[in-house]
C-alpha cells in the first residue's frame, strides 16, 4: 500500500534570483513537497518511526531556503536530494515544487514554478 505525506503551500521570504533587484529586495516563494512511501498493509501508524516526520522535512526546506541561489531549479534540486537522503532507509519517491509568484515583477500576474521528482 502507498502512503502520501504532503507539505503544501509553505511560504518563505527569500533572496533567490538572477537579477540584482531580486537579490536585494527578495520575494515570496512557495514550496510543495510530496513523499510517497511503500508501507506494509499491517502498519499500525502508532509511533513516529512509522510515519514521515514532516517537521524534519520542514527543517530541511527551511535550511535550504536560507541559502541564496540564482536559480530556483538549483534550490529545488538541493531540497529534493536532501529529503531523499534523509529518507534513504525508506522506500519513497519525492516530488518538490517551488513557485515564485510574479517573478522579477515582470509578469504583472501569475507565477513561475519548477518541479522535480526522484
Keywords:
118 residues, alpha+beta, GTP Cyclohydrolase I, domain 2, four-stranded antiparallel β-sheet, 3 helices, elongated
At a glance:
The protein is α+β, with helices and mostly antiparallel strands and 118 residues long. The protein has three helices and four strands.
H/E element order: EHEHHEE
Range of helix content:
25-40%
State the distance separating the first and last CA atoms: 19 Å
The helix count comes to 3
- Under CATH at level 1, the class stands as Alpha Beta
Would you tell me which CATH topology applies?
GTP Cyclohydrolase I, domain 2
Number of domains: 1
Number of strands: 4
Radius of gyration: 16 Å
| Order of strands, widest sheet | 1-2-3-4
Shape: elongated
Second CATH tier, the architecture: 2-Layer Sandwich
Strand content: 35-45%
Which runs of at least 5 residues are low in confidence (pLDDT < 50)? none
**Major beta sheet, specifics?**
4 strands, antiparallel
- CATH homologous superfamily grouping: GTP cyclohydrolase I, C-terminal domain/NADPH-dependent 7-cyano-7-deazaguanine reductase, N-terminal domain
Structural class: alpha+beta
Whole-number mean pLDDT: 93
Amino acid at each position: 500500500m502507498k502512503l502520501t505525506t504532503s507539505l503544501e503551500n509553505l511560504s518563505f521570504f527569500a533572496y533567490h534570483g538572477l537579477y540584482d533587484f531580486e537579490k536585494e529586495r527578495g520575494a515570496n516563494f512557495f514550496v510543495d513537497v510530496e513523499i510517497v512511501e511503500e508501507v506494509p498493509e499491517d502498519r499500525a501508524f502508532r509511533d513516529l518511526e512509522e510515519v514521515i516526520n514532516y517537521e524534519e522535512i520542514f527543517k530541511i526546506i527551511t535550511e535550504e531556503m536560507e541559502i541564496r541561489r540564482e536559480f530556483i531549479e538549483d534550490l529545488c534540486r538541493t531540497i529534493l536530494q536532501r529529503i531523499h537522503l534523509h529518507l534513504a532507509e525508506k522506500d519513497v519517491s519525492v516530488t518538490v515544487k517551488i513557485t515564485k509568484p510574479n517573478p522579477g515583477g515582470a509578469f504583472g500576474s501569475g507565477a513561475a514554478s519548477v518541479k522535480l521528482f526522484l
